[in-house]
Predict the 3D structure of the following.
Amino acid sequence: MNHYFVTGTDTDVGKTFIIQYLLNYYKHAKYSVLGLKPISCGCKPINNQLCNDDALLLQQASSIQATYNIINPIALSAACSPHIAAQYENRQLTAKATAAAIQPGLQKNADYIFMEGAGGWFVPINQQETMSDVAALLKLPVILVVGIRLGCLNHALLTQQAIANSGLQLAGWVANCIDPNHAFISDDIATLLDRIKAPLLLTMKYGGEVSFMNFP
């Protein structure tokens, strides 16, 4: 089975959009797929349950049937960093408890599981730990979604180094062209191709057109 932890160079770089595309891609290829979003912030009550729009999209795109609590075991109301959102609810998140809460999803018999991290690699979940600590406990290969825009080179290379320092495998990266007005898209991608020590898996043009696909 192919299980991946999906992180981004920042928030709002399209992690959910990319996972949704991959889920639909492999579902249409007759593979069983599941998308997970362990920690969600900015959740709203739906039928007396806190739900996140992105987590609902992953649930809808998955072929494996799973309850919302399995897709998104930690749902927080405030639209901010998880450690702050948890403080507002008098909750204490830990990497160990978060990794344990993910296990029911990982135990589903899916050919592909894509797990979305919250924000970027070092987004805090408490005063000492970050999402990287959760990823380290899970020991899953990592996919890095790079939002191609001004500043992405620094963010992508720093994140690559941080993933390596965590002792995890960077399985590959995705170029998600989120800024249609960015004049140097091809130059940025060429630079990252030269400097990221993992394969480019997917290039998504602005608007949702895939121009390159090299996913296993």
